[in-house]
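Exercise 7. Given the components listed, write out the predicted structure of the assembled complex. Treat all entries as one system.
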Amino acid sequence: MGGIVDAASAFHTPFRMQARDAGDTETDEALMLAWQAGDVAAFDRIYERHRGGVYRYLLRHCRDRATAEELHQDVWLKLIAARARFDAAARFTTWLYSVARNRMIDHWRRNPAQRLVSLDDDGDGRGIGELLEDSDPAGNPQGAATVLQETALLVAALEALPAAQRDAFLLHVEGGLAVGEIAALTSTPAETVKSRLRYAYKRLRASLGDPA
Amino acid sequence: MNEDPVPGSSAADQEVARRWRRQSVEEPPSSTDVRIRAAARQAMATSALTGSRTQRDRSRWTRFMPLAAAASVALLAVGLVRLIPREQYQAVPTPELARPGETPEPDPAARSKQDSASDTERPTGDQLYAVPSAPESRDEAEGTTARTHALEAAPDSDLEVRSAMPAEAAANDQTSVEQAAKASEQARETQAPDTAIAPPEIPPAAAPPASRRMDSAFGSTVSAIPATLAVRVQNDAARRTGVDPESIRIVAVDPVAWQDTSLGCETARASAPEARVLGYVVTVDAGGTTLRYHTDGRDQVRVCDGK
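Answer.
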């Protein structure tokens, strides 16, 4: 199990550094307790850490920006309403992504047709190209083209995955959840989660030209 | 077997993850962020307001809770008392007793009442404790009722009850017994139900005490006088008259206050110590024979004819 923890830590560190400011060493759980005690600023810090991950998790699933924004807002409003029920013994990200996942499932149950909506079908006019421009501040056309190609390949590969594998991959990458946490959140055996992740990584590697 | 046991930990998988993060940079619009943060602040403000209101309401409830509890208990007690049938607590006599040889302190209120009554109504001084009102006493003194004759016939008697009459006089004057019974009946009818079988007490000077006319069988009078007295009266009357005890009926029960332990019997008065003894004059019909018993409030039963 130690290997799992180490691997997860190594995997998540770059992502977390992206979300946290320098010196922001308080854990999510400590911030939640502070927020429960009435510290509004603690919520701002939690939200700043996880707003991107939750939003992208929803966006990759529903493939529609407007829907993702609506779901994103619903998830956080649910979390705000249920803040008093948060158990500090549990990990915050597990709780947060379980709320997001349940909201995603509810959305699919109510709107099954939206599962086929493409990521490019952006209601506010922002497509992948625009997103890539945002992600490449240097504005290098060559680099942008490379990223565009790579993004298209990765997104296409992700969308081609079965929903369960895609879900496991997104929880792993965007949510930073370990295998055991994904297993608990999805009520799935850990070995099954491993298998799903393994297959997802393999498909994504293949989409990038790495058959290994 | 070459597969990584932990997905995502191999160099190839980490490269995939790095590339994924490189392109996966979408974020929610700032307008959504503003709404969510505003909702969080509003929730905290509402929570603080609701919490303080809840705390205020709780403290208010805590403050008034003892009063509310006391009021509830009082209402419950009143309700229970009202639900109890009146006969149950009215039929249990609780006479103030004085055993022979005991000299209990008289009740101050009753004593003052008696003193005032004796000052104005009793020519014989403190001999009478529970005498009728002055006009009726005077009527009786003028010979208008048989009971007055009885009292006048025994001026030294300790019997202070207007309805009481020495047994010898009662035996010789059946008419007076019937008059007394009628008077008792009238008084019983005019009395409120709750006073019809009240425990023995000193009658007020302005209201003449009424005899308790017993229409029921003998056994049922246990509820009007102590059971011990009822049984003793029954047995004594049966012994004296030879009548079946079951056929003996109590005609009237009058609460009285005797001046000494002789219970108003002249023959025993000489040796009886002075003591205020509350009891009854019980009139019994034993097969057509009327017997009048002097009793205390517990178990002393006496017929003053010496038989």
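Discussion: The radius of gyration of chain B is 42 Å. Chain B touches chain A through 37 residues (CB under 8 Å).
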